[in-house]
Request: fold
Amino acid sequence: MNKAHKPDYILFGVIVILCVLGILALASVSGSVSVKKFGTPYYYLSHQLIYGFLPGIVLFILAFRFPLEKLKSWAHIFLLINLVLMVLVFLPPFGTSFGGATRWLIIGPFSIQPSELLKFSFLLYLAAWLSKAEKTEIISGIKRTWKSKGKFNLFKIAKEFFQQIFSIAGLREKLLPFLGIVGIVGLFLVIQPDISTLGIISFTALAVYFAAGAPFSHILITSGLGMGILSLLIKYEPYRFNRILVFLHPETDPMGIGYQMKQAIIAVGSGGLTGLGLGMSIQKTGFLPQPMSDAIFAIFSEETGFVGAAVLILLFLVFFWQTLKVADNAPDKFLQLLALGIGIWILIQAFMNIGANLRALPLMGIPLPFMSYGGSAIISELAALGILLNISKYIKNQ
Reply:
C-alpha cells in the first residue's frame, strides 16, 4: 500500500453538499406530513438525523480510518452478517412487514432495512472475489488462432472463438459462480419482495463484473437471463405490470395507477426556472404520494425550479467523475473495482429515481441517494463513501 496522502477534497465537498441538500429537502417535505401524524413538524427530520445521519457519520469516520489492507479479508464476513439479517426479517419477533413487503428488522428502538445495507456489503464481497480472477484475453486468443491456421478459415476461427468464450474466459470458473452469487442474493430480495433493490444490485454487479475483465459474451448471457427473470417477475405481479403500462401509456387511469406519475410531472413543471421557494411546494400537501421517498426529487424541483434540479444532477455527475478518478488511480485491483462499484451504485440509483420522476423511466420505488427518507439507506451510503474517501488517500498520482 502506498503512503497515505490527503483525501479527494472535491469528492468530499460534493458529498457534504449532497447531504446538506438532503437534510434541507427532507425538512421541507416532511413538515406537513409530520404535523398530521405526530403534531410536530420535526418528527421525520429528527428521526432521520438521529437514526440515519448520526450513525452514518460515525460509520463514515470509521470507514475513512479503516485499514484498507484488511478490508478485502473482511468482505465475506460483512456479507455473511448481512445475509443473516436478511433471514431474520422473516422471523418473528425480529422482522416486520409493511405494505405487503417483509423488509424491516426491529432491534430495540431501531428499525433496520438489511436490503439497503446489502448494496454495499455485496459490492464489497464482489470486488474482493473478482480481484482474484485473472483478466481474460479473448482477442489475443483469436489472433493466435488466426496465425496458427496460416490462412483465413471462418469456421475454424468461429469455433475457436466460442471455445475460448466457454473455457478460457471461464464459464465454469467465472460466469457460473458470478450468477450463483447474484442468484443467492436475488432470491432473498425476491422473497421480501424488493425488486428495485435487486435491480440496483444487479446493474452494479454487472458493471463491476465487466470492468474486472469479463468478456462481452458473458455480459450478453447475464443480461439475457436477467431480462427473462424480470419478465417473469412483472408477469406474475400485477402492480409491476401496471407500472410498465402507465409508463408506456400515461393516459391510463390518471386518477388511479397513473396518479403518482402525473402529479410528479405537475410538481416538476410547476417549479419553473427558479422554483416556488423552499417549503412552498403545493404538491407535498397531500397531492403527490410518497413525497419523502420516491417523489422527493419532484418536490425538490418544484421548490428550487430548473436551476435547483440541474445543480443537483450536476452534483451527482461531478461525484461520479471524481469516483472514476479515484478508481482509475487506486493502488490495486480490489480497490479499483470497489471504488468504481460505489460510484456506479450511487449514480444508477440517483438517475433511476430522477428518471422515474421525469417520466423517462417507469416508477420503481427507488429512493434518491442522500435525500429520500430512510435511515438504513443513508447509513449504507455514508459507510461506502467513507471507504471511497479512504481509497482516495492512496491514489497513485498524488
